[in-house]
Amino acid sequence: MESWSPIDVPTVPGRGPELRLYDTATGEVRPTAPGDPARMYVCGITPYDATHLGHAATYLTFDLVNRMWRDAGHRVAYVQNVTDIDDPLLERAERDGADWVVLGMAETALFREDMEALRVLPPDHFVGAVESVPEIVEAVEKLLVDGAAYTLTDGTADVYFDISTDPHFGSESRYDEATMLAYFAERGGDPDRAGKRHRLDPLLWRGAREGEPSWPSSLGAGRPGWHIECAAIALRYLGGGNIDVQGGGSDLRFPHHEMSAAHAEVLTGQWPFARHYVHAGMIGWDGEKMSKSRGNLVFVSRLRGDGVDPAAVRIGLLSEHYRSDRPWSNDLLAASQDRLARWRAAAAEDTAAPAAPVIARIRDRLSDDLDTPAAFAALDRWADDSRTAAATDRDAPALVAQAADALLGIPLR
After folding, report:
1. Are 335 and 380 in contact (CB under 8 A)?
2. Are 318 and 359 in contact (CB under 8 A)?
3. Neighbours of 295 (CB within 10 A)
């Protein structure tokens, strides 16, 4: 599967500080201390609908991680999947009388366009579940051989992971069993499935059903489970365990990240799968989480079609801290458009307030768990100061514009 086009990133003088991020597994903001290269896996879309602002906020978060690592001098290996076979995609295709393959391809293409418009740096590997079936089958086979998986005896040929084989199960989400069971039932799990060893055991391979797509394999015809998909893709493209960041929205904390980490840890014998588990907050509209089931989605493509500058969308989504659940509104968009106009006006002048202090402040704040509100406030002050007698630096407009683009992904020129 092809990624989107590369984004030109300006060079900022000097080098940024090392990035610190909140880790869900420890409940602390800690240095990322990446290897060479820094390795990041971010869970991608299930392409049954266009990119809504909740999706966009998540990918903007990890775009900032990518940019901060690069600014600190690190090479970055970034992998993102596309779950191009799963129940929500099949259900949407059936509802609309569409071919599920065509629907998935069309929505994935639109996602690429949205990411490029938002100046999100593309992943090095943008990988679909369908193209990864051989790797997924190989991973399930290994789990079966090692006694970490089992096949149900009800004639379905469904294969499940035995969570008891991961001694660290639960350490990523830090939820108790009752909370896990509630989320598992709510987010695609099947705690009441007969024949399972434990109610939390997740599906690895779904045996073929009439009317559903399936692939031939040594496991029997079928299709992959959700969590093993990400484990297999991450291990193939990023190598063994102890990657630097596994990221996604906060709704992936459990079961998806817990389960995919458990799969990877048992497959490799290495713990933890990721040094940081990083989760972005949810975007709301009218006081509720933005989601398909609530019918309150705001789409990036619709805003683009209405002539909204994607940079203003980016500012709006990052105007509060990435870990917070936060609302989207027409007032927020208007304020973000005004903010962008003020920054661009200052960057268009012949002289401005000195660049060094504002660039240092942006770097400092972003390196501390991606504190975008404080970074934006620094740009606000710089724009205000650039209208006063302090606006004497001829190099500042270009330097600040370069920094805003490189570090925040916001073009001011």
Report:
1. no
2. no
3. 7
Q: Which two tokens stand for residue 109?
A: 């293409």
R_g of the chain, CA atoms, integer Å:
22
Integer Cα distance of 383 and 243 in angstroms = 39
Whole-number Å distance between alpha carbons of 386 and 370: 25
pTM score above 0.85: yes
Those residues whose C-beta lies under 8 Å from the C-beta of residue 375, and which sit 6 or more positions away, are 361, 362, 365, 366, 407, 408
- For 17-80, where are the alpha helices, taking DSSP H only? 53-71
**Helices 355-367 & 372-385, crossing angle to 10 degrees?**
170
Q: Are 315 and 375 in contact (CB under 8 A)?
A: no
Can you tell me the distance from the alpha carbon of 57 to that of 41, in angstroms, rounded to the nearest whole number? 16
Q: Encode pLDDT of 198-217 as tens digits.
A: 999 999 999 999 999 999 99
Strand partners, 277: 246
Residue 236 CA to residue 154 CA, distance in Å, equals 32
pLDDT digits (tens, 9 = 90+) for 242-289: 999 999 999 999 999 999 999 999 999 999 999 999 999 999 987 777
User: Could you tell me which residues are beta bridge partners of residue 276?
Assistant: 245
The residue type of 308 is: V
Residue 191 tokens read as 């705690």
Ordered alpha helix ranges (H), 52-173: 53-71, 87-96, 100-117, 133-145
Which H or E element spans position 126?
Answer: strand 125-128
Among residues 42, 33, 123, 116, the alpha carbon closest in space to that of 76 is found at 123
CA 341, chain centre distance (Å): 28
State the distance between the two ends of the chain, measured CA to CA, in whole angstroms. 32
For 327, the 3-state DSSP assignment is strand
**Euclidean distance between CA atoms 12 and 373, whole angstroms:** 21
Q: What is the four-CA torsion angle of 123, 322, 277, 115, rounded to 10 degrees?
A: -10
The tokens describing 167, both together, are 């001694």
